[in-house]
């Protein structure tokens, strides 16, 4: 443990709490910050503060946003008939990259996980149901939770609640990712790829 | 590119400039910061600012420090007869972990690298020579630059300057690291391990 500068120690400790940053990389980051031009380091500190001050949640879709409703929810050119449900706000930019999707989003804020004590009331599921119920435009809900055990369970749970509202509920396809090698694909993915096969 | 929050974008861009942080991990870090308790995020921002305000260089050994001379240079219990020369301040804590070394340090601030335009005047070599020259206590200079081409060149350069002052100049040993497997050791390391062999 380096003792010469308490402020450096403190920075290393705080950086080390970030995800994917161990003690060693925290040290490297701290020394990098020490060597940075002062404006750059101050810029980073300010950016962290600002993000906490200005960014909140859209009260419609629960995506992170500086305004509520967010730019997606308030865009009239968006397809108002489709809602894509994702686990985290981090998933929205991934789907936004797909040009063919121009619908709306709904961020759950996690996934059902009884073992971690996360139940339906901990996610924005009630708000999703109200949203779907009160809005006649909505024709389809695409469930894009992760293809993990919890993500699948969440998808099934949601579909059971939304289907009775006479709305089409779909799940994004699972299969072999583009560019992957069949040889290295796991058996579950392969079996789902076979199950989801389509005619030419 | 995520467009909903300009402040988030800015934070991602700045985090992405840190070493070892790509665009994807910068996004993950930014979203983590968004989810952090406000005090924790503010603490991190303050720590970055503080480190830039309070931490400077020790004017004797060029290690990072909140005071000059630093706690190592001003500690009378340290062995004043040995100076360990390292490339970066980041190397000091590594050597500090070795209990058997309780001498002084000298941080070069890099290594000689003509291809990158780094010559002797860009490092704290002059200060080292003056320090060794003016201080009769110093009996040995241990050169602990990295075992890279540039680190070796720097070590040779320094030894040629310091040896004529009638001071013992040593280089840390290169060889097989403890716990490593001979099978996977590269031939240069192996040859240096053989060369540096010692009798039982």
How far is it from the N-terminal to the C-terminal residue of chain A, by CA?
63 Å
Number of domains of chain A: 2
Structural class of chain A: alpha/beta
Largest beta-sheet characterization of chain A: 4 strands, parallel
Largest interface: A-B, 56 and 56 residues
Helix residue percentage of chain A: 25-40%
Major sheet: arrangement of strands of chain A: 4-3-5-6
Beta-strand content bin of chain A: 5-15%
Specify the oligomeric state: homodimer
> What is the 3D shape of chain A?
globular
CATH structural fold name of the largest domain in chain A: Dna Topoisomerase Vi A Subunit, Chain: A, domain 2
| Order of H and E elements of chain A | HHHEEEHEHEHEH
Radius of gyration of chain A: 21 Å
CATH level-two architecture of the largest domain in chain A: 3-Layer(aba) Sandwich
- Class of the largest domain in chain A, according to the CATH hierarchy? Alpha Beta
